[in-house]
UniProtKB/TrEMBL annotation:
SUPFAM superfamilies: FAD/NAD(P)-binding domain (SSF51905). Residues 1-28 are annotated as: Disordered. GO terms for molecular function: FAD binding. It comes from the Bacteria. It comes from Actinopolymorpha cephalotaxi. Pfam families: FAD_binding_3. InterPro entries: FAD-bd, FAD/NAD-bd_sf, FAD_aromatic-hydroxylase. This is 2-polyprenyl-6-methoxyphenol hydroxylase.
Amino acid sequence: MTNEQQPQHRRTIPTVQTTPTRKTPKTENRTVLISGAGIAGPALAYWLRKYGFRPTIVERAPALREGGYAVDFRGEAHLSVLERMGILAGVRAAQTHMGAMAYVNSAGREVSRMPADVFSGDLEILRGDLGRILHDATKERTEYVFGDSIAALAEDADGVTVSFERGEPRRFDLVVGADGVHSTVRSLAFGPEDAYVHPTGLYSAIFTTPNHLGLDHAGRAYLTPGRLVAVYSARNNTEAKAVFYFAAPDAPGHDRHDRAEQQRIVSRAYAGNGWETERLLAAMPSAADFWFDSISAVRMDSWSRGRVALLGDAAWCPTPLSGMGTGLAVVGAYVLAGELAAADGDHLVAFARYQEVMDEYVRGCAKQADGVANWMVPGNRFMAWFVHQNYRLLPYVPWKGRIAASIRRTANAIDLADYGPRGSALAERDGPGGR
């Protein structure tokens, strides 16, 4: 059944009448529609509820999306937000505990190794597991609407009338697009994505497959000019993730909703590739969590327009090559909600302050992706050989620790305000059940 055929799944938040005791957000700016139930959207909903706002999340998929990459949190800034949300222990319990990634030749013999302690974050978790943790932390106090998507936005002086693909129109005070690189909200409020989405020339596919190599918290990768295929164990070695990165700078535009076409693109790109590639490709059609897209960066001068704001990859995607996207999403959610609380719901003040706080931090994190594509998917045999030599030498060079330290400094290059007292005051308005 396609997404278009899926029924809507709505969860209505119970009404609890309470008496206002302290200053609350501006009455006209309390309801917030968030597009996207991935990582940034639920993280924002958590903080908005804490500060007394009433978030609704709409998600095109019929349920939470499973699968996806292993994602990293790096440094105190990322971890402190998880701790303030009360989910750090849960994220730690679900972390992957991955070891090194061994690069092999066509016969499966190891030729080099990428050390886990240099490039991995402080905490790594599968994206689907993180999504479930965030959903569990928000589902009792946030309205989730699955199987629907925003079709149109009509803003006026008092709010935004939102039309949906399936549901009836509804009225909200503010709208936030946390709906990824191909953001619907961004297209509706800012214009076509071509102006903001910048392809790197790489494509990627990932899906779950049996752990037929018997990997134990480890990975194997096979590198040929213009192509990388890797497999790493997941969920305590009970399964594995197959990952494909390949160069296709002149590839025609693909239909993002045509799974069969996407799989044909991957199969053509890896025809005759060798190693375990054919076996992994054979498992691709039956993978329920297959994902495919171009690897693209998003760059914008402004993340807000009127009553609409963008968050996470919709606003600033640094590409998965940076290793910073998920951490940026949760930090950005904390700052956006906190600034709305600090401004007592004044969106013009809050949105401007949100970008002021985050902009330099986002730019610094995005720079972590500079040049990574040439290392991840070398364009010729010499460059592939050069990459292997560097990985062989890396454990022995005296500056190895500086690489990890530099990445951590970038991840920590933001001073997070404590919005807590203001949030606590606002939350008294509605109490634990919402209004």
